[in-house]
Amino acid sequence: MPLTRFEFVFHSYAQLTAFLVLCSALLVASGCVQRAETDVVVYSALDEEFATPILDAFERSTESETRVIGKFDIESTKTVGLVNRIIAEKEAPICDLFWNNEIMHTLRLQKLGLLEPRSWNVEAGWPAEMIASDGTWCGFAARARVLIVNTEMIPNPSDYPRSVADLADKKWKGQCAMARPLFGTTATHFAVLREIQGRQATLDQLQQIRDNAVILSGNKQVAQAVSAGTVAWGLTDTDDAIIEKDLGRSVAIIYPDQASDQPGTLRIPNTIAVLKNAPHPVAAGLLADYLLRPETEDRLAMGDSSQMPLSRSSKFSPRVLPETPVRWMQVNFETAADDWENWATQLQALGLGQ
Fold first, then answer.
1. pTM of the predicted model over 0.85
2. What are the structural domains, with CATH classification, of the chain?
């Protein structure tokens, strides 16, 4: 049964996954070909509006008429849903290539042994922390974790928050916001901080934030709450913050933790990974190489999400970057992903998983 960009409505995610795996098994057993050999199935956590034009451009660029079949999921829990689907399908993979708009849950798949090591076609000098130590994933086109401030509610720039730690400052009680730290880039952010600050210190900090800040479902909701004046400021991603700024809202974007005694601003890449035992690994590899081109990064930089190229050959500086250089956080993403399941359980115990 071919997949399409749209799917029938099932009563539950479990029913949908079971149905797809059963169809795959039946087709293999009957000797039928599930998809054309040039098809490539992409599970994408990047928003459909940003990913689809690039995937369509890849289709047009291939002489073999490769067809890209995209699967997208809902906001806030989309990465978790796609990753759980990949795990559920591990005995009969449907996905060829996973395009994640963050990294933590890509690392989960790496540690589960579900990704295929490969040699990545990137230029010399690619940031070492943006390529898996075993070659199973590669990062590109990053976003930054920033503070977005409502300039009408906080008119004096000297009063702006300057650190992620300010989310726990009681002077901002009820006036700041953050997404749940069990999903997306917020999950990555606090897993990284756990490695820098220590586990208990980060759990204590998260408990203070829980009691002080408004916890919302996703980074987009945080940016929109600040833009609307529901809260004065919040922690979000550059792509969500720049959208509000482009709409002409009264907001400012602050790159946090720039002082010498602070850890710096976290930069989180998109990640590309080819699935182990992918039905169409050759087509998946061609698409992976296409996505890692400087031209693709420039396209993401010029687009609404204003993502930040990693390539030195990039020709476009995204408008979301400040005029002054940013001091980026030094991070080992693979270490930050260690013991994720226990860490997630601890976050849920704090009431931060709902």
1. no
2. 13-141+270-316 (3.40.190.10), 143-266+341-349 (3.40.190.10)
